[in-house]
Amino acid sequence: MENILLSDGCNTINYYEVGDRRNPLIVCLHGLAGNAPYTFDQLSILLEKDFHLIMIDQPGHGLTSPLRKESDYLFSSLAQWLQKIIRQVTDKSFYILGHSWGADIALHYSKVFPESILGVILLDGGYTFPVNQPEMTFEVALSGWNTYMDQSTLVEWETVLKEYKEYTSKWDNRKEKYVRTLFYEENNLFTLIPSKFTILSIIKAFFSEPFTSAYPYIRVPLLLLHATLPRTLDNARSLGFKQLEESISEVAIIAMENAGHMIQWDQPEQTALEIKKWVIQQKMKRSY
User: pLDDT tens digits, residue range 177-209?
Assistant: First the structure.
C-alpha cells in the first residue's frame, strides 16, 4: 500500500493507493472516526489483484487536515472537497465505495458528480442512520457523540482495545495495529485523532442532508452490502432497502451473514467476492 500526501501549502490530504492502474478504479471512503488503513487495509489485500484502489483519509481523520467551518462538513461540501482531490489523482471514471459515514459521502458525491461514476458500493451505510432510526434523534445522537469524544481523550490502551474488540467477531493482532493508527499517543495515553468539532459537525450533517435526499439523483447501479447484526436494527434495514429500491432503478442488496457494522472485518472474503462479482456484472452490461 503506497502512502501519498498532497499539500496546498496550508493543508494536507493523505491517501493510499494499491493495485494496477489498468484495472477498474474504486475510490474508497472510510467511516466516522476511522481512517483508510483501519477501514480498508484487510479488504484491499483481497481486491488489489483485480482493482486499482484509492483510499482517502477524509477531513480531520488520519493524516488529512481538518476543515475549518461546520458547514464544510455538510455532505454537499464534502462532495466538492472530494472532487478536487479526485481530479488531482485520476481522470478515469470509477466506482465509489463507502463504509458507514463514507457511504453517505459516496451517495452525495454521486448526486453532484454523476458523470464521474460507474457505480456506487455501500458497505453498511447510507440506508439507516438517522432517517430510519427514530430513537436516534438529533439530540440523542449529538449528546451521545459529545460524551463519546470526551471519553476518547487520554485513555489507557487496554481501555481502547476493550472497546474495539467489541466491533468484530474476528479480532487479531493486525486489527490492533489498525486501531492504533486512529489515535495520538501522549505519555502512554491515547486520544482519537478527529476533534470533537469535526465529529459533531459531521453528526449535524447527517440530519441536515440525510441519505434519502441523494437517492433520487443516483443514476448508476448501486450495490449495498449490509450487516445482519445486531438484529435490533432489522426494521431500520428493511425500511432502507425499500427506500433504495423505490428511488434507484438498479439496486443489488446483499446480506453479510453473521456480520456487524464492520462487515469487511467480520466477512472480508465474502465482502471482496461480492464486490468482484458485481463489478464484473456491470462491465458485462456495458459491453452489450
Answer: 999 999 999 999 999 999 999 999 999 999 999
87 lies in a domain? Answer: yes
Q: Is-contact 101 210, C-beta < 8 A?
A: no
pTM, to two decimals: 0.98
**Under 8 Å CB-to-CB from 89, ≥6 apart: which residues?**
4, 6, 15, 17, 54
Q: How far is CA 32 from the centre of its chain?
A: 7
Burial of 59 (0-12, 13-18, 19+ CB in 10 A): buried
Q: What residue numbers bound the domain in which 254 lies? A: 2-136+210-287
How far apart, in whole angstroms, are the C-alpha atoms of residue 214 and residue 109? 9
Q: Residue 252 is placed in which grid cell?
A: 443489488
CATH number, domain of 129, equals 3.40.50.1820
* 126: region left, alpha or beta (phi > 0 left; psi from -120 to 50 alpha): left
21 domain-assigned: yes
Dihedral (Cα; 180, 265, 28, 36), 10-degree rounding: 0
| Position 41 in a domain | yes
Query: In the chain, how many domains are there?
Result: 1
- Cα–Cα distance for residue pair 229/234, rounded to 1 Å: 8
